[in-house]
């Protein structure tokens, strides 16, 4: 077989694109392959290209296409490797002019290569997973900038990396604001149900997991829209470009089927971030402990009926399901004046930091309020925000 040459290197162009990431947000690298599907094979092909073993890369690409004939990116790589036998290539996808489909494949290649080069280390975790409650066995974290979805297991409250997958998002990017803006929302959500492929057009592939957008905070901010799902791809398409959906998170069908093993509707959190920020386990534990202490102080002040200390935990910017700050304060003072001793317990506590500049955490728990006269048990959701040196509550309502 005739030897191939690429000058400049096809992979070099991709590497330049993949390294345009702020170092402050990138986790220390731990190069490992998290699945044994076509992406693992693609990573080996990238290695062959990087070491200028282009004939071997071509053979592996052909084998990949035999197994996954609808993998369009692999077709593009094969075409480049064929052209490289005749002349040096100057760009990935070796074509002049603007072609949206070709540009999408270039972006997909860069995203997949970037993920390979920047695997998070086992001792670093997304800063959003402060605490999973004991019934939440897994959590999903999406990084829209890297076109990546990560799965973490609840190991006695500590998040442990399980797997990661390439994932597409909104064609207009992230941070959804209104209906029809073609953006993927950023925030803390949970999976509400599963829709089987038998109930869906082929466009959605092997099924869909709706999430609860808009959540309480989205509604407070006036964000609109609906129908944000994690779903698969059409049968003739292995994967879509990084920015391709109307706001959903889209995975290859086999990846969605694997992901389904980790998702429990009603329990599994889905945190969507524009770009994941990572913490060492020591820093994670320190931040987790700080908020846990604030929640316990809130509970203790409410149980002790120290109403002014209890109310000091609520921000002046507080809003409840139906009450503003002034109405909430008045209501709680009336309740405190008429109640006797109480026992208040907090159980099944989860804490997930909301992505974005605001230091805000979504806290959900099961509260039992017990007095001599009655017992009340409910699921409660609070949004805690850092204000100066203190954590304060800016939203509270039923979960």
Largest sheet: 6 strands, mixed
Helix and strand pattern: HHHHHEEEEEEEEHEEEHEEHHEHEEEE
CATH topology of the largest domain: L,D-transpeptidase catalytic domain-like
How many domains? The number is 3
CATH superfamily of the largest domain: L,D-transpeptidase catalytic domain-like
Describe this protein's structure:
With about 400 residues, this protein is α+β, with helices and mostly antiparallel strands. It has three domains: about 10-115, no CATH class; about 125-275, L,D-transpeptidase catalytic domain-like (Beta Barrel), CATH 2.40.440; about 280-399, Nuclear Transport Factor 2, Chain: A, CATH 3.10.450.50. About 30% of the residues lie in helices and about 25% in strands. It is built from ten helices and 18 strands. The protein has helices spanning about 10-20, 40-50, 55-65, 70-85, 100-115, 215-220, 255-260, 280-305, 305-310, 325-340, and strands spanning about 125, 130, 140-145, 150-155, 160-165, 170, 185-190, 210, 230, 245, 250, 270-275, 280, 315-320, 345-355, 360-370, 375-385, 390-399. The strands form five sheets. It has a six-stranded mixed beta sheet with strand order 2-15-16-17-18-14. Strand 4 and strand 5 form a beta hairpin. Helix 1 (about 10-20) crosses helix 5 (about 100-115) and helix 3 (about 55-65) runs antiparallel to helix 4. The radius of gyration is 24 Å and the shape is elongated. It starts with 9 loop residues before the first helix and ends with a strand. The model is unreliable at about 1-10 and about 15-25 (pLDDT under 50). This is Murein L,D-transpeptidase YafK. One of its GO terms (biological process) is cell wall organization.
């Amino acid at each position: 077989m005739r030897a191939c040459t690429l000058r400049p290197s096809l992979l070099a162009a991709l590497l330049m694109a993949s390294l345009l990431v702020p170092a402050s947000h990138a986790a220390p690298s731990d190069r490992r392959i998290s699945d044994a599907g076509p992406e693992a094979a693609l990573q080996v092909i990238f290695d062959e290209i990087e070491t200028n073993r282009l004939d071997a890369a071509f053979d592996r690409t052909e084998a990949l296409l035999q197994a996954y004939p609808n993998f369009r990116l692999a077709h593009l790589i094969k075409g480049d490797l064929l052209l490289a036998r005749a002349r040096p290539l100057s760009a990935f996808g070796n074509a002049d002019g603007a072609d949206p489909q070709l540009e999408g494949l270039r972006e997909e290649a860069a995203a997949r290569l970037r993920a390979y080069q920047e695997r998070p280390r086992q001792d670093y975790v997304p800063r959003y997973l402060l605490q999973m409650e004991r019934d939440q066995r897994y959590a999903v974290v999406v990084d829209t900038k890297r076109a990546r979805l990560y799965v973490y297991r609840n190991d006695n409250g500590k998040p442990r990396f399980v797997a990661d997958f390439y994932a597409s998002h909104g064609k207009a990017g992230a941070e959804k604001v209104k209906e029809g803006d073609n953006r993927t929302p950023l925030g803390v959500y949970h999976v509400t149900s599963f829709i089987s492929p038998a109930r869906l057009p082929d466009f959605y592939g092997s099924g869909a997991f709706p999430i609860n957008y808009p959540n309480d905070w989205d509604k407070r901010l006036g964000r609109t829209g609906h129908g944000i799902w994690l779903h698969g791809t059409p049968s003739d398409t292995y994967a879509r470009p990084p920015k391709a959906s109307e706001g959903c998170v889209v995975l290859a069908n086999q990846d969605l089927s694997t992901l389904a093993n980790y998702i429990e509707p009603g329990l599994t959190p889905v945190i969507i971030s524009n770009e994941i920020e990572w913490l060492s386990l020591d820093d994670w534990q320190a931040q987790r402990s700080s908020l846990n202490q604030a929640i316990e102080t809130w509970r203790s002040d409410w149980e002790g009926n120290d109403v002014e200390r209890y109310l000091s935990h609520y921000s002046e910017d507080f809003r409840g399901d139906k009450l503003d700050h002034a109405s909430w304060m008045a209501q709680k003072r009336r309740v405190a004046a008429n109640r006797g001793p109480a026992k208040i317990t907090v159980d099944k506590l989860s804490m997930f930091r909301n992505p974005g500049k605001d230091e805000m955490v979504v806290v959900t728990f099961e509260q039992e309020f017990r007095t001599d006269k009655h017992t009340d048990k409910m699921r409660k959701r609070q949004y805690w925000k850092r204000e100066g040196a203190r954590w304060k509550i800016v939203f509270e309502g039923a979960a």
